[in-house]
């Protein structure tokens, strides 16, 4: 099945099974704004708990805060957002659709990558076990031709980005005959910069109102509270401050479902270090964060690092952790070495001294910062995309049936256990209810008695429930139930008293955290 079709099915699945809804849908929706349904919010909260606890429980020198969305407008002047928080946009004159010029070029580069991969796949099938992929990539004429063309475009692209050359960005699009996906034409406008911040006013009168912004990132709330946290927590460098919160960007080219939204949530940790030690800590946090992602068991091959082609003016190193979405490898987390830019800027604009006295060095300095930043919504999408699966499974009488299953990591699954009485009589529902009442203090359980047992299994598969327990007439006599495992569909008879330990072991974040330390 084409990956585009898989993505469409995933989006439809999110709506049908209560994970994600279009915001204000009864009013025809609001573009690039989404609501999380009853299962989506549970998955999202579990992702946030996994991140938060891994930061503040596993690291003695990382603490958390929750800063306000509204901030003094000078904060955003100091951070550079007022003057430089822009996207390069280009319009197609025929379709009237607007695109990010840099994204169009990135997609062009991805097409050359796909051409190379296709040549490699064909050769691998042709040569079988004797295929030497490394040699093929280094010697095959068609691969080399595609690689050379890609490199030429890439070099032009990097140079244009670093020089903020909007004319060159447009010229790359023109020279490579990039067409509008809607109109199929190459009738492009000039490239223009567009500021992404939402603004509003605060004050009781029109004349006395102050122009303020909805924060486009959560990091600045950490930076302006650096001294508050450091002094009240008696923190010694190196230490970090973690935060989860909403951010807002007026994305003109918002698309790909919840991948790029106007209202989104971030999980960020700013780690403060001594000058000169930042690059070593940058490498350390790259390893820590990649290990965090891979520990979920989605498949190591689905993750990769991607170093930035253009460094932000404040950074001296930056990389992304990318996940293989249905529409290609895309960023889910960024790790940046931000130098001392942020604290120095706030020191300058506020007029307040923001330094740290290092007793070991016997000197005061403005700390350097290593940032780790994840979009909660992108993380959510990566988990859903990596878990969505369509399978053919044995049915009754030797037939073949299809099932849609979310093979979510059990620790993140919205519902951990579904309890299903075989029939709605003979005391089975009462026993099932008792099991739910006993276990609901430990993990999210669901009771379901409607439809055949097969349909109930399929319903739980579709929301990613890792365990189903069936109560039958024998359960009343032997106090045992049949537990069914989502991924393998295997079943076994276990004691009711053993359920807490069997399920708890698989859904415990503690066991997962022990892999990280």
TrEMBL record:
Family, similarity comment: Belongs to the class-II aminoacyl-tRNA synthetase family.
Role this protein plays: Catalyzes the attachment of glycine to tRNA(Gly).
Species in which this protein is naturally found: Xiashengella succiniciproducens
Entry protein name: Glycine--tRNA ligase
Record-annotated Aminoacyl-transfer RNA synthetases class-II family profile domain positions: 150-421
Keyword entries, A-Z: Aminoacyl-tRNA synthetase, ATP-binding, Cytoplasm, Ligase, Nucleotide-binding, Protein biosynthesis
One of the record's GO cellular component terms: microvesicle
Highest taxon of the lineage: Bacteria
EC number(s) from the headed UniProt entry: 6.1.1.14
Group of enzyme by EC: ligase
């Amino acid at each position: 099945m084409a990956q585009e079709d898989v993505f469409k099915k995933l989006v439809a699945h999110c709506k049908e099974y209560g994970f994600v809804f279009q915001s204000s849908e009864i009013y025809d929706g609001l573009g690039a704004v989404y609501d999380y349904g009853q299962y989506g919010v549970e998955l999202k909260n579990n992702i946030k708990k996994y991140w938060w606890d891994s930061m503040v429980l596993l690291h003695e020198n990382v603490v958390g805060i929750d800063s306000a969305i509204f901030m003094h407008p000078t904060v955003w002047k100091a951070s550079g957002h007022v003057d430089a928080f822009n996207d390069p946009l280009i319009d197609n004159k025929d379709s009237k659709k607007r695109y990010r010029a840099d994204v169009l070029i990135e997609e062009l580069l991805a097409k050359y990558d796909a051409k190379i991969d296709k040549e490699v796949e064909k050769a691998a099938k042709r040569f079988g076990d004797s295929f030497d992929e490394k040699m093929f990539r280094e010697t095959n004429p068609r691969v080399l031709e595609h690689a050379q063309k890609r490199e030429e475009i890439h070099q032009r692209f990097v140079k244009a980005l670093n020089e903020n050359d909007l004319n060159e960005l447009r010229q790359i699009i023109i020279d490579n005959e990039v067409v509008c996906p809607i109109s199929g034409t190459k009738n492009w406008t000039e490239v223009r910069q567009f500021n992404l911040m939402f603004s509003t006013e605060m004050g009781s009168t029109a004349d006395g109102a102050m122009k303020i912004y909805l924060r486009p990132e959560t990091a600045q709330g950490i930076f302006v509270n650096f001294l508050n946290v450091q002094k009240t927590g008696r923190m010694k460098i190196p230490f970090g401050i973690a935060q989860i919160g909403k951010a807002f960007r007026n994305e003109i080219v918002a698309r790909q479902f919840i991948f790029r939204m106007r209202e989104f949530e971030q999980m960020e940790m700013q780690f403060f270090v001594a000058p000169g030690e930042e690059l070593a800590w940058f490498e350390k946090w790259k390893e820590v964060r990649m290990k965090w992602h891979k520990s979920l068991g989605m498949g190591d091959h689905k993750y990769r690092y991607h170093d930035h082609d253009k460094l932000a003016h404040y950074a001296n190193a930056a990389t992304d952790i990318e996940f293989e979405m249905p529409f290609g490898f895309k960023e889910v987390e960024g790790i940046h070495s931000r130098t001392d830019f942020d604290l120095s800027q706030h020191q300058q604009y506020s007029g307040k001294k923001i330094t740290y006295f290092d007793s070991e060095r016997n000197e005061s300095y403005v700390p350097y910062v290593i940032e780790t930043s994840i979009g909660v919504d992108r993380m959510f999408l990566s988990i859903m995309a990596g878990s969505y699966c369509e399978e053919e499974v044995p049915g009754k009488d030797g037939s073949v049936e299809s099932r849609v299953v979310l093979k979510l990591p059990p620790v993140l699954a919205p519902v951990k256990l579904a309890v299903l009485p075989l029939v709605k009589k003979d005391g089975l529902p009462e026993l099932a209810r008792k099991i739910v009442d006993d276990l609901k203090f430990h993990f999210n359980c669901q009771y379901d008695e409607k439809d055949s047992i097969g349909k109930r299994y399929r319903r739980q598969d579709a929301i990613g429930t890792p365990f189903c327990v069936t109560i039958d007439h024998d359960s009343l006599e032997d106090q045992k139930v049949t537990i069914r495992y989502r991924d393998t569909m295997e079943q076994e008879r276990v004691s009711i008293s053993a359920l807490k330990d069997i399920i708890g072991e698989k859904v415990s974040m503690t066991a997962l955290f022990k892999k990280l330390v």
